[in-house]
Amino acid sequence: SLFNEDIDFYQMDAHELEFEDETFDLIITRNVTWNLERPIEAYEDWYRVLKPNGKLMNFDANWYGYIHDEEKKEEFEQNRLHSLKVNGDDNFDNIDCQKVDTNVMENIAHRLPLSKIERPKWDQYVLDDIGYDSIKVDCGIGNRIWHEGEQIKYKSTPMFMICARK
Questions:
Q1: 72-129 pLDDT per residue, tens
Q2: pTM for this structure?
Q3: Which CATH architecture has domain 24-165?
């Protein structure tokens, strides 16, 4: 293997990790937090399993924020049309070559708390309240890691990165 390391994979509840306190130097998440029913509990538990000076890197976006905000919905629909025009396919209903029922996804997102909240400001506040420090937010990360087609596609839902230290 590339690093000559054995890697163990675990599947568990992100709100209640089955690891000992102070286990990890680094936690990286991508497009996870917005899916959580109890995101504050998850942030608290991630803090618990981080070693002192351990770091959290969270990549996420305001996914499905348009469900609760008419202005965002209009922006999302315009962005979708522009993406279709420029990219030839908006690819919102066909993710990784699998047909996705966006109505089902929207119904799920409608029940999730972070679909209603303006992020990453909320995340900064919660992380600080839990005890994380050196909290830094990068709202332009998507422009540096997404290719041009993705930048067009996700313009109304830009990715952000939050880095914080225990």
A1: 999 888 888 888 888 776 555 545 545 677 788 889 999 999 999 999 999 999 999 9
A2: 0.87
A3: 3-Layer(aba) Sandwich (3.40)
The residue ranges of every structural domain in the chain are 24-165
Q: Using alpha carbons only, give the angle 39, 64, 158 rounded to the nearest 5 degrees.
A: 90
